[in-house]
Design goal:
With about 50 residues, the chain is mostly helical. It has 2 helices and no strands.
């Protein structure tokens, strides 16, 4: 029973962390228009190369 509890706990933590990682990515079709004259820090993170 203890092993089952540990397996379920690890699964839920992994699922929760992967959901956090998925929510921090930018959507497809992001606009990296550098010609607008915006500073680099105002562009989306994917455009900044981080």
């Amino acid at each position: 029973m203890k092993k089952l509890f540990l397996a379920v706990t690890v699964s839920l933590v992994t699922l929760g962390l992967s959901a956090c990682a998925a929510s921090s990515t930018s959507p497809v079709g992001i606009n990296c228009d550098y010609s607008q004259g915006k500073p680099l820090w105002e562009l989306p993170v994917d455009c900044q190369g981080r």
